[in-house]
Amino acid sequence: MSCKILLTGNIAKFSNNKFNEMQTIGLIGGITPQSTIMYYQILNDLAEKEFGEFHSCKLIINSVDFAEISKLQKVNRWDELDKIMSDAAQSLERAGANVILICANTMHLTIDAVREAISIPVVHIADATAEEIKKQKLSKVGLLGTKYTMEKDFYKDILKSNGIDVVIPNEKERIVINEVIYNELSKGILKKESKALYLEIINSLILRGAEGIILGCTEIPLLIEQKDVKAPIYDTTTIHALKGYRRALIN
């Protein structure tokens, strides 16, 4: 079980006028803690690169309880998950967030409820990913993620609306991918055997015509890197964090 916390990110001691104009990003995290750590690190690295040494990103984190989230997912109680995520978003808006990122691919199943509950923008991870794929002019990609991300249409529909065909692993492969995510990656456990299985599945998707591979679970980049795969991979964690960061910059 993870603790429900509201954490305000550190603000750089040495500011400049441009940095002071940056908006605050609200993160709905804890889904999983590993994923949230990755978002936090990426966003702070971007701020330091943009504004200089000692600068960190303006962030507010609402970390929900992954045990509760996972339990509700298993019993298909998306109505309750909508409520949890909407409440988290509202707390971030009240705390001063100007834009929100949901730090998990799967939980974008709740994005409509979240958007209805608040008046600030929520950056969709699939929209951001589709933009990157279109830049490379790919027409067919493989999608890895939780069983919800691979099997439900919320993610694939956005890709298809952008002219991108999607191929997913077969049922046996989907079970393997999902079990590794929940039993290993969500806990920060990285196994060579699991990496080998993932790469075997990725290669099968490439043989089925995938020109690129979406790492459609925010923890998968802990296991799979571009150097491991011949086709382009799309690290949705980094892509999403970067899109949110750019959205928070005031021109």
Automatic annotation (TrEMBL):
- Superkingdom, taxonomy of origin: Bacteria
Keyword list (alphabetical) reads: Isomerase
InterPro entries for the chain: Asp/Glu/hydantoin_racemase, Asp/Glu_race, Asp/Glu_racemase_AS_1, Asp/Glu_racemase_AS_2, Asp_race
Per its UniProt record, what Pfam families does this chain match?
Asp_Glu_race (PF01177)
- What's the family? Belongs to the aspartate/glutamate racemases family.
Task: State the name under which the record lists this protein.
Answer: Aspartate/glutamate racemase family protein
The organism is Hyunsoonleella aestuarii
Q: What is the lineage of its organism?
A: Bacteria, Pseudomonadati, Bacteroidota, Flavobacteriia, Flavobacteriales
